[in-house]
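lol ok so funny story. i was supposed to be doing the assay writeup but got distracted and ended up predicting the structure for this chain instead. priorities right. anyway since i did it might as well share w the group, maybe its usefull for someone
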Amino acid sequence: MLKADETSGAFLFEEKQSFPEWLIILLVAVVFWTLAIILIAGLTGPSEKRGDIWLALAISMPVEILLIMLFRSMQLEKIITSNGFYFRWKPWHKSYRYIEKETIETFAVRRFPFMSYGMGWIPGYGRYHNASSGEGLQLYLRNGKLFYFSTADIDSLSKAMNRLINPSQN
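and the output, tada:
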């Protein structure tokens, strides 16, 4: 896998995918529940410990608000061109990760096995990049590596991958 600042080739597919709204609401609820517990502890706790609790609240509140804003702004961006498959997690990755079309052996439409958002590694799926539940695209590379990408538009993504891998058949 290579890094590229810009994409090259004719565009076949582009998608920007954010995390589901319910997941963001759940994160906000957990953060505010935690902050509420710290606030209650600060108001009802022993007076000699209140300074430490207020300090913890003063530090954790801006950090947690920043994390919520970053989580809300995260997007999995996928672009397929005639040269290969580009992807990145904005705002974390400035450059694209690039899988050259010559290295892609085949692909398959698959359902992700369980709720695991973000990126990581799972046996049988390899490196995953998941911003939603449901079907996604499993890439099988010639070197044996696997990549899984979630998508909101599996039909368009599959068609673009067919055009990438088999340009003479389209």
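Residues 43 and 50 are 7 Å apart (CA to CA). The chain has two domains: 2-17+76-169, 21-72.
back to the writeup now i swear
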